[in-house]
């Protein structure tokens, strides 16, 4: 009665992915994407620090 059926089954190991050979155009595109993502991250960090856009928002004059 000592079978190994209870509990979680171990996941099967997947074969390692082969390294791809990139040419100059592919490498340039990858580098460009990384730079864009980095710039977006910085902009998000700045936006989160400032809070609301423009400060007070719309102002009402009170006149009709």
Note down, in words, how this protein is organized:
Residues 32-45 have a biased composition (Basic and acidic residues). It comes from Amborella trichopoda. This is Translation machinery associated TMA7. Residues 1-64 are annotated as: Disordered. The structure is a single chain. The chain is an all-alpha fold and 64 residues long. It contains 1 helix and no strands. It has one helix spanning 24-50. The longest helix is centred in the middle third of the chain and has 27 residues, at 24-50. The N and C termini lie far apart (87 Å).
| Overall 3D shape | flat
Main sheet specs: none
- Judged by helices, strands and strand pairing, the structural class is mainly alpha
Termini gap: 87 Å
The residue fraction in helices comes out at: 40-55%
Low-confidence blocks of residues: none
The total of beta strands comes to 0
| Strand fraction | under 5%
Number of helices: 1
SSE arrangement, N to C: H
- Oligomerization state: single chain
Radius of gyration: 27 Å
Average pLDDT: 79
SSE topology sketch:
Layout: H1 24-50
Keywords:
single chain; 64 residues; TMA7; mainly alpha; flat; 0% strand
Q: What's the gist of this structure?
A:
This protein is mainly alpha-helical and 64 residues long. The protein has one helix at 24-50. The radius of gyration is 27 Å and the shape is flat.
